[in-house]
Amino acid sequence: MILPAFRLHQPDTVAQALEIAASCSGDCDYLAGGTDLLPNYKNRLNPRRNVIALWRVRELRETGDRSFGAMARLSDLEADRGVRRRYPGLAAAVSQVASPLVRQQATLGGNVLVETRCYYFNQSHDWRASKGYCMKADGDVCLVVPQKEICYAIYAGDTAAVLMALDATFTLSGAAGERGVAAREFFAPDGIRKNVLLPGELITRITLPEGAERCRSGYAKLRLRDSFDFPDAGVAASLRLAGGVVEDLHVAVSAVSMTPVMFPEVTAQARGEKLDSDLIRAIADGIAARCTPVKNVMFPPQYRKRMVGLYTRRLLEQLAQS
Question: Which of 17, 55, 121, 232 has its CA 20 to 30 A from that of 308?
Fold first, then answer.
């Protein structure tokens, strides 16, 4: 399919990008790797008349031991031995995004901001016209849970769940300057609003806290095919043990709701306890019981719910032994 017409802007700095965005009066999108945005444009899913490509903004590619520019390529992170050693969960999530070819182009910030997905939304224009448009594009009613207030399209990124489990911070840049927002507070429970970004703002940097490298972390993904597909459920965990006793544990689940979801009321019971098979099963069962997926992707809700429990158990068993 052919892309719709738009004006392409190619700034050299973040400041220039923000200035262009302000001049577009909200009718613009930022373009990172383009692996999600451009296919959506081809399907005529909310295209804008202005696209601001961030390819030339070198400051967005700068990385350090604990921080990553939003334009860091996923393939570079996947190949980075330091990332694999310090943050194995992030490396695992990155390695399961789409396919090797896509990861050559896709970026970390782009994966965090990946468009929410739904069976009724991610289709061609003709398909959507035959079914009746949904409120996320061209219509005014959610076709998953019929009403006009909330879009139930799921969050379908891979890396955000790990970043939440590791307590990362996102640096957002906008007309009012920079601000830091915890990854755990960034997402909004609506498939259209999606997050706390203000008009014209963009993520410029992702930073992990001191001590994150001492955590055992991992990621497990449910998808129809072993490559290329978005998650139908994804489980990320961060674990810190001392002598077999849990010092800290966080679990985040992606692709079962409009945001990645955490379960502090479940994982808190593990602190100070020995991480044995009974405790792992109790945590996995408690998380699965609290997941409430709806029928908006290929796998049925009850199957995704059960797989969240299974993946949580397997992941915690793996981290306990690593």
Answer: 121
Indicate whether 71 and 179 sit together in one domain.
yes
Distances (CA, A) of 241 to 102, 177, 201: 35, 39, 38
3-state SS assignment for residue 88: helix
CA nearest 258: which of 216, 282, 291? Answer: 291
Contact 28, 20 (CB under 8 A): yes
Distance separating alpha carbons of residues 265 and 269, to the nearest angstrom: 7
Residues 200 and 239 in one domain: no
Q: What is the pTM of this model?
A: 0.97
Q: What is the DSSP letter of 219?
A: E
* Tens of pLDDT, residues 267-288: 999 999 999 999 999 999 999 9
The reply to whether 252 and 281 lie within a common domain is yes
Report pLDDT for 233. Answer: 98
**Contact (Cβ atoms closer than 8 angstroms) between residue 120 and residue 143:** yes
Do 87 and 67 have their domain in common?
yes
